[in-house]
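Sorry to interrupt, but I need a hand with the structure work. I would like you to pick a protein and set down its sequence and fold. Please put the record directly below this note.
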Amino acid sequence: MTVTTSTHHKLSHSRNTDEQFQALDRALARRYVFRLLHEQRLRRIQEQPQSDVIFRPRVEMCDDPSSSRITATLELPGIKADDVRVTLERDNLLAISGERVSKAPSDQSASVTFPVREIKYGKFLRTLDVPSGTMMSTISAAMSDGMLLVSWPRFPPGATTRSPQ
């Protein structure tokens, strides 16, 4: 009877060890695949010319019903006010565009690597809907500490407002 118990214990221990090795094997394989995908993504980013990259800055819109203006705040750290363009396209589309240029010296050798590269460089574009009839002269923009504050009238001059019926 003791022999049967020890044999059963050995089989149980062997199965448990096999399950542990299988779990370890799955975890290592998963980590290896994630590493390969990360390296592939980094190679693609490094092969792509930075000037062709277009990104969209994050925006926060404030629509306070008690205010006569709608305000948008865009995150543009590291960009000077002179490098930002605010234009009115078509009748109701406000375009904010520009370019963030890398501060790293361009004469670096090919052996220089960036183990972490999360800052986006290149051209950016963000478009916002504004009320039809908005004129460029009624749009205000101010840049401070990497934040662009843009505002426009809720109801453009000459626009008729309808009261709810």
Q: What stands out?
A: The longest helix spans residues 2-47. The chain has a mean pLDDT of 80. The chain has one helix and eight strands. Residues 63 and 116 are 37 Å apart (CA to CA).
